[in-house]
Amino acid sequence: MAVDWRQAVALTDPACREAVKAHLAAFLRRHDFDGVTLAGLHFGSDGPEKPELMSPAGEAACRDFVRQHGFDLRDLWRQESPHYWRTASADLERFMAGGARGPRRSTASSSP
Q1: For residue 4, pLDDT beyond 80
Q2: Helix, strand, or coil here: 2?
Q3: Which residues face 7 on adjacent strands?
Q4: Cα–Cα distance between 107 and 109 in angstroms, integer?
Q5: What whole-number distance in Å separates Cα of residue 33 and Cα of residue 104?
Q6: Is the pLDDT assigned to residue 45 strictly greater than 60?
Q7: Residue 58 covered by a domain
């Protein structure tokens, strides 16, 4: 899904993560850089009001979240769910604080 100029990717999915690493490695090999700073490979969001911009919410992240928290993170945006974000702020906070999103868990390596 394109978001502005950015591309949303599921870095929690091993196959997607490997594809991103391969893409970056190929890009770096094509150009003569004297140094590279990677910034912006993160789990972004414009807040729970725009679930289409929440990431990651791919299958791998959802499976991890269920294992960690006992419910599908997509339930946060289902009004009929007891985990709906507007009425279950503690559940939303678990997601925003990390959960399966992985900000505290590195999914990258230092080599391409």
Answers
A1: no
A2: strand
A3: 2
A4: 7
A5: 30
A6: yes
A7: yes
